[in-house]
């Protein structure tokens, strides 16, 4: 019953967000046909384009057509690109997913050892320095860091490309820029959880019964990592739905940059498709996190029941 409720809420959320986004775009001032043809276009040309794009139909008819298309996997045709919105999203999605998973890998390959190091070190001065560095990481704006990295590593040292050039090497710099603030964020939370978990009674019991430290660390990490799961979901969500500023700075043709271009061109089908894609991914990811969390900690299912 717990999972059925979650699935029902997920489907209802996707439908509600899709409907609300469609209505919201209707209330935005301005005309797509004027953006496409320019302000000097004649009234007849504007009217012909409206008819061609289907904008002369009533709101209810356009909403019904869009809803039927969604159930058939058709999100409409882009005004600017003259292609199916679904295909445009699929073209850019692999690059955005690549950036997301490379960044996630960098974050956790750095955060877990760093958290354990700060947790286990007895030197208070090193702990203070480590905590200060992590705080600086968290507070650094990504766009500022991206510009500094481009200038330092791309222009002065010439170690990396200043923009995307269809090679995986050109993704290293933007992934590092994305990862650094997240390393500080995840490390601070994990470090705090390790500190709390070490003082639990079950740890004292296992330690007093002679459990080796390496196995004890696995128990500590497992329970300390539970509160990190939602944060990881939020991080993954932010990356896969498109890191808009970083994609703009490094000229990466991903989901985030596509969204910016669609808004500037008032490409309504593309904006609607991207909002629907983003909202669907948000709801699906939250559903997966809830299920994963309930499997790792069965008390959640019992509490809801």
Write the layout of secondary structure elements.
Layout (H helix, E strand, L loop, with lengths): L1 H26 L4 H6 L5 H11 L5 H13 L13 H36 L3 H16 L2 H15 L15 H26 L3 H8 L4 H13 L2 H13 L3 H6 L5 H10 L3 H29 L2 H6 L1
Helix pairs in contact: 1-14, 5-8, 5-11, 6-8, 7-8, 8-10, 8-11, 11-14, 13-14
Plain-language structure description:
- It comes from Fusobacterium nucleatum subsp. nucleatum.
- It holds the Pfam family BPD_transp_1_N.
- Keywords: Cell membrane, Membrane, Transmembrane, Transmembrane helix, Transport.
- Its main location: membrane.
- It is a multi-pass membrane protein.
- By secondary structure, the protein is mostly helical.
- It has two domains: 62 residues, no CATH class; 208 residues, MetI-like fold, CATH 1.10.3720.
- 77% of the residues lie in helices and 0% in strands.
- The chain has 15 helices and no strands.
- Helix 6 crosses helix 8.
- The longest helix is centred in the middle third of the chain and has 36 residues.
- The model has no long low-confidence stretch (mean pLDDT 78).
The whole-number mean of residue pLDDT values reads 78
Count of alpha and pi helical runs: 15
Helix/strand structural class: mainly alpha
Order of helices and strands: HHHHHHHHHHHHHHH
- Characterize the biggest β-sheet: none
Strand content: under 5%
CATH homologous superfamily designation of the largest domain: MetI-like
Number of domains: 2
- Total beta strands: 0
Helix content: over 70%
Radius of gyration based on Cα positions: 24 Å
Please identify the top-level CATH class of the largest domain: Mainly Alpha
CATH architecture of the largest domain: Orthogonal Bundle
**N→C terminal distance:** 9 Å
Shape by Cα distribution: flat
Low-confidence stretches: none
CATH topology of the largest domain: MetI-like fold
Keywords: Cell membrane, Membrane, Transmembrane, Transmembrane helix, Transport
Protein name: Peptide ABC transporter permease
Domain ABC transmembrane type-1: 93-293
Family: Belongs to the binding-protein-dependent transport system permease family.
